[in-house]
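Consider a concrete sample entry:
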Amino acid sequence: MIKLKPSPIAQEALSRIGALYDIEDRIRGMLPDERRDLRQQHAKPILAELKEWIEDAQKTLPQKQKLAEAMRYALSRWSALSVYLDDGRVEIDNNIAERAMRPLGIGRKNWLFAGSDKGGERIANILSIIETAKLHGHNPEAYLTDVLTRIQDHPAHRLEELLPWRWSPLKELNEAA
C-alpha cells in the first residue's frame, strides 16, 4: 500500500489559515465592532502575508497541479475572502449555510421520487420550515407537533406567533399565564 505524504506547501497554507481561525475562536461572541477592530489589528496582517505567500508559492508549482489551481482560485476571489475583515457581523466562512444545505444534498436522490413537481415543492417547503426551526434553536419535531396541534384553533390574525422566530411552546405559554 502506498502511503501519501502531505504536501509541505499545503501544510503551510493550512497552518496560516489556522491562525486566522484561532483569532475567530478568541473573538466569538463579541460585539460586531469589537470583532471588526480585532480582525483589523490581528487578522488583516496575517491575511496580507497569506496572500503574498500564495502568490509566491503558486509560482513554484506546476500549473496543472490541483494545489496550484486552488491557489489561483483563492487569489481570483481574494476581495470576497477579505470581506469579513471589515464587518464584524460577517463570519470568516459560510459553514453555517453549508450545514443548513447539507440535508438537501443528502436527500437529493430520494427526492427524485417525490411524485411530481408539486411533491418536490412540498418537500422544499417542509425542509425550509424544519431548517428555520433548527436555526432558531427549536427541536423541529416538537415545533411541528405543537404548531400543527394548535393551528386549527389559533386566531388567523395571530398566525405569525407560530412562526419559528416567534414561537413558544404551548406548555411554556400556559406556565407563564
